[in-house]
Amino acid sequence: MPRIGLGTYMASGKKVTNAVIWALELARLRLIDTAAIYRNGQEIAQALKQVNKPRDSIFITSKLSPYQMGTERALEGSRQIMADLEVDYLDMMLIHWPGFAGVSPSSPLNRQMRIETWQVMERLYKQGKFKAIGVSNFEERHLRDIIDNCEIKPMVNQIEVHPRFPNAECRRACEKLGIVVQAYSSLGRGELLRHPTVVRIAERHHHTPAQVLLRWGLQQGCAVLPKSVHQDYIAEFSEGKLLTWSLTDADMAELAALEDKGGKYCWDPNPDPVTGFPPVD
């Protein structure tokens, strides 16, 4: 799996088509990340046609949504995802979320749906429809549930990771279990790009704030999935601009100081300390 890819969350229409083209041709990225719930598979398919690159040179990841969990839904969801993308296999399929849509986070049905969905993915992996299988937003308890009840352990866990929310506990669990971490929201939804510490480090290295945040993620041992629909920003994501330099120990210490208990931007499968919303069992 490439260490850097383009995320496409909340990107649709001509914007996502152009973004994928720029990622593949301008930044020379090889990984495109999408999901059923993003509803942009057909637009990505148009981009793949326009770049005219060999299928095996592009790594395509998608995700089954909480509405596509369970044996029959996962089978149909997988078929629909590949049909929208106009591909006959995916390089990686993930379960997007540990919970099943429409049920309480504490319902035992969540666990049943996870296991059924994973068993479908194992079957399609063995058939060559998926070259790799993994999960997203899973905590250690969810990962162990899969490992204890299925044949193939998750190969990747795609989770939120950035200096404000380094997600160290989950990353340590993944390392212990031999699961690769792929980070999303590395740029902190734009807020971190303007943080004085990030800007100062970027100026020190003559790189952009986005490159500093992505380099931080890479030096944490994560693969990264920056997202943009702007050509100039996508150009910043190339391997040549991210893999040819390093942050110093002092830089990493400054960025570590940004950690904040309230620094999570995205969905949380754990209890919410403010609302008391229960964890996903």
Automatic annotation (TrEMBL):
Stored PROSITE patterns: ALDOKETO_REDUCTASE_2 (PS00062)
Catalytic-site annotation from UniProt: Y38 (proton donor)
Pfam families in the record: Aldo_ket_red (PF00248)
Site feature: Lowers pKa of active site Tyr: K63
Domain called NADP-dependent oxidoreductase: residue spans: 4-258
Positions bound to substrate: H96
InterPro entries: AKR (IPR020471), Aldo/ket_reductase_CS (IPR018170), NAD(P)_OxRdtase_dom_sf (IPR036812), NADP_OxRdtase_dom (IPR023210)
Protein origin, superkingdom: Eukaryota
Keyword Oxidoreductase: yes
Keywords: NADP, Oxidoreductase
GO MF entry, a single one: oxidoreductase activity, acting on the CH-OH group of donors, NAD or NADP as acceptor
Family indicated by similarity: Belongs to the aldo/keto reductase family.
Protein name per its UniProtKB record: NADP-dependent oxidoreductase domain-containing protein
Taxonomic placement: Eukaryota, Viridiplantae, Chlorophyta, core chlorophytes, Trebouxiophyceae
